[in-house]
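Illustration: 8099_t:CDS:1.
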Amino acid sequence: MKLIYFFCIFLTFSYWSLAQETTDGLYQVDLTYRNISTKYCYALALIKTQLLDNIISGLTSSITDITSDLGINNLLSKRAGSSQAIGAVNYANDVEWISQISMGTPQQSSLVVLDTGSADLWIPCIDCYNCKNKRLYDYTQSSTIQYNGDDFSITYADGSSSKGWMEMDTLQVGYMTIQDQQFAMVYDMSKAFQTDVIDGVVGCGYDSLSVYSGTQTPLTNMYNQGLIPQRIFSVQLRPARNKTTYGGIFIFGGIDSRLYTGSITYTPVTYKYFWQIGIDAVLYNGNNVFTSSRNKQQVIIDTATALLIVGTNVARTLHSNMRGKYDSSSQTWQVPCNLNSNVQVSIKINGVTLQINYQDLVRERVSSLSSWCYSGIASTDSSIWIFGGTFMKNYYVIFDRERDRVGFATPVYAY
Ligand SMILES: *[C@@H]1O[C@H](CO)[C@@H](O)[C@H](O)[C@H]1NC(C)=O
Ligand SMILES: *[C@@H]1O[C@H](CO)[C@@H](O)[C@H](O)[C@H]1NC(C)=O
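Result:
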């Protein structure tokens, strides 16, 4: 797919150790200190969804008519404390949000992306031949592993991939101990993962999205094993510019009322596979530059994509309004680094206009002396768009499998 673009940045980067602390029964996870100094090439769009074009052909006909379901509900009000909060580290200025999980007994930790755009869990194992600088899961040390050995192979939308074997073991997420979690022990990963700072991926999509059929995602297992009260998780991907203690927060089991203000705008999941919803419109400075037809424009809400990825025509219109441009030699959309702070790009969802902070539309400078910056918006020829960090950073996002809907609320960084 054309929508990916690559850039290289030189990073000296430290993970902050997150203090283990309890606030009203909510827990944060220790993120082990890790110091990285590396020339690091990165797929800016980092799309860890599966090969969309392969999937879409089988899907679009099944997209159901969207019923209006605007719910306003603070689902945790009576159950505060029963959910589990997991901290994330904001990596490389909003490129990815990284969390820690542990596998096996005794626990062996991995750094992962909690990815709403896929539904398989994999971590590299000691048999990996190209996993330099990764934490490798040593299955010989786990007393709880249950071997299966079926082949596992996944390819994401950016072309990155991994291969391994399916097994089962005890998974630790925060203070939750999940028994019999299916996962892949990976022995081969593509270049993009070799140079990526994460070890593996935890899919948080619908179980049906798993490439290894019959897999139950950690969320399903948490619920079935009584560890969380509801099949709901909620996410704050926080922008680096806010300099918050936690780069991001994932709450498993519900909604933390301290993390948002105002009401929640819900919209139904249109196809229970990805976290896929329909949008009404895209607006520039209050005017529609795109309006959905009766079959609403489909988008995927993806925690593992950095950018807002829209259709090429919409990207062209937005960038021309922002006095941006498409640079065909690098195949990237660019905006003036001094983008006017009055610029308002927003998305209408279920009748509500959700705005994107103009600062999220301007990313890294194209080169040190250039007045052009990479845009927070990219384009795709695919019929399904992807809303990643550029959009998600502006909201507390609720992924609700009890009522199959996604909610958006104004975030509060309460902790
Ligand atoms: C981390 O890296 C920085 C820059 O290279 C260095 O100054 C610092 O001492 C390192 N910290 C640790 C704990 O290794
Ligand atoms: C994040 O920082 C911006 C200033 O850059 C501020 O306006 C905004 O309120 C902050 N967001 C939250 C949720 O605190």
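Reading the tokens back as a structure: The first helix runs from residue 52 to 59.
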